[in-house]
Amino acid sequence: MKAIIFSAGLGTRLKPWTDKHPKALALVNGKSLLQRNIVYLQNFGIDDVIVNVHHFSEQIIEAVEQNNGWGSRVHISDESNAVLETGGGLLYAKNLFTKGESFLSCNVDILSTINLHDLMAYHQKNKSCITVSVTQRKTSRYLLFNDDNQLAGWRNTDTGKERIILPQKSLTEKAYSCYAVFDYSVFDLMEQYHFAGKFSLIDVYLQLTATQKILGFDHSGDTLIDVGKPENLAIAAAAFP
């Protein structure tokens, strides 16, 4: 199985570091976020990795080359001309994936102890189109699931805005962890629904869930740190030696 590590973002929350560097190369105990994610994937047998780049892309490419991909085969998806967000970045990298094979995505600024073997097994057992990782933690933006664990919508509790695709009397709020497993058919579906340019994976999930099986994999209890927030760097350093 291949994986894509989304690394193209501007990392505005990590300023002033990201005024001169990409967030992917921010350090936690002397190891970059990109290195940590690549090595973590190796623990689950994933050593064929796509890294999309935009902000200070040359620094990421240089780091990958100098470190021989930290032991993995690293393919660069170059978005230097325009940042495409997660959904657009995934579609742009289509030709780097293996046709017909499922794959995994993650965000470079997330560090976690999630068991990816369990996530992949859940996806395969349920024959999902997409399986998204979630936890029961407090946030302002939630994915909503029905009684069958099917993605049913999205809600922002700060603004009150929500999108309900599969109405049900009671929907369960869960927080997205930014790990997901996809069936390769998702590329055909994105093209069928005319996705193009810059768009989020959340948009893809909400568009497809009316007709496709998109389930949540709950890994509550695992460590999960959004290192894109400066105040979490010290927390990450304590949790990940």
Structural overview:
This protein is α/β, with parallel strands linked by helices and 241 residues long. It has one domain (2-239): Spore Coat Polysaccharide Biosynthesis Protein SpsA, Chain A, CATH 3.90.550. 25% of the residues lie in helices and 28% in strands. It contains seven helices and 14 strands. The protein has helices spanning 33-42, 57-66, 85-92, 116-126, 186-192, 201-208, 233-239; strands at 2-6, 27-28, 31-32, 48-53, 73-78, 103-107, 110-112, 130-135, 141-145, 151-156, 162-164, 172-182, 214-218, 224-226. Strands 1, 4, 5, 6, 8, 9, 10, 11, 12 and 13 form a ten-stranded mixed sheet that branches. A two-stranded antiparallel ribbon has the order 2-3. A two-stranded antiparallel ribbon has the order 7-14. Strand 9 and strand 10 form a beta hairpin. Helix 3 packs across helix 6 (201-208). The chain is globular, with a radius of gyration of 17 Å. 44% of the residues are buried. The mean pLDDT is 97.
What keyword list fits this structure?
241 residues, alpha/beta, Spore Coat Polysaccharide Biosynthesis Protein SpsA, Chain A, 10-stranded mixed beta sheet, two-stranded antiparallel ribbon, 7 helices, globular
